Amino acid sequence: MIGVALVDDQPLLRTGFRMILEAEADISVVGEAGDGDEGVAMVRTVRPDVVLMDIRMPGTNGIDATARIVREVPDSRVLILTTFDLDEYVFGALRAGASGFLLKDVRPAELLNAIRTVAAGEAVLAPSATRRLIERFVPSVDPASASVRTNVLADLTERERDVFVQIAAGRSNREIAGALHVSEGTVKVHVSRVLTKLGLRDRVQAVILAYESAIVTRGGERL
After folding, report:
1. Dihedrals φ, ψ of 82, to 5°?
2. Domains in the chain, CATH or no CATH each
3. Longest Cα pair distance anywhere in the chain, in angstroms?
């Protein structure tokens, strides 16, 4: 059973999500909160598998709440809910440790799939959305930061470095397989090893690390 917590300042929206989720045999809503502080306290108590987190709330916002949850209850994974595609706060939430984001008008089937995906340890962020997030929100980096790049890549094999750069460009496993002429199964293994070696939660965090470490440029080119 996947335990889900709802953190949103709109009771009606929480009610709608609860009705959708509790109609599923493998999902249960284990808690609700109306703001970030309440959400963090609730997550500490019920320790859900997935937290559906609003960004814009009175008091503690979703970004700060996400950071606290990731730090204090690392087994609970956060899925951000936003009203607008590529909300200006989304990247901050992803940097804080969220495992992806959804629009609040998401279709029920997509919401359920996203929750199951995140609960399984994967990220919910389409490659196209990754590229758009990077183009819009990732600041320019200094190509001279070679020491940072070296430290990040030191433990990766040459093939794992290639895969890491492909992830940073927002490419799916299928696209990476085509670019490197290997099977999708092989790519999945390499992605898992890259995340483990770099101590990352998911590929969203890999994208952020790659750009902040100046390993690739905004256009996805390797430095």
Report:
1. -135, 150
2. 2-124 (3.40.50.2300), 137-212 (3.40.50.2300)
3. 53
- Token pair of 50, please? 């997935």
DSSP for 25-92? TTEEEEEEESSHHHHHHHHHHH--SEEEEESS-SSS-HHHHHHHHHHH-TTSEEEEEESSTT-TTHHH
Q: pLDDT tens across 180-209, in order? A: 999 989 999 999 999 999 888 777 788 778
Contact by Cβ (8 Å): 12, 85: no
Residues 42 and 83: their CA atoms lie apart, in Å, by 23
**pTM for the structure as a whole:** 0.74
Decide: residue 183, CB within 10 A, 0-12 exposed, 13-18 middle, 19+ buried. exposed
Q: Which residues pair with 81 in a beta bridge?
A: 54, 102
For 127-145, write each residue's pLDDT tens digit. Answer: 556 666 666 655 555 555 4
Q: Are 3 and 32 in contact (CB under 8 A)?
A: no
Cα 93 to the chain's mean position, in Å?
8
83 vs 99: CA distance, rounded Å: 17
Q: Which residues contact 17 (CB under 8 A, 6 or more apart)?
A: 6, 8, 29, 52, 111
Strands (E), 177-217: none
- Distance of alpha carbon 91 from alpha carbon 2, whole angstroms: 26
CA angle 60, 75, 197 (to 5 degrees): 110
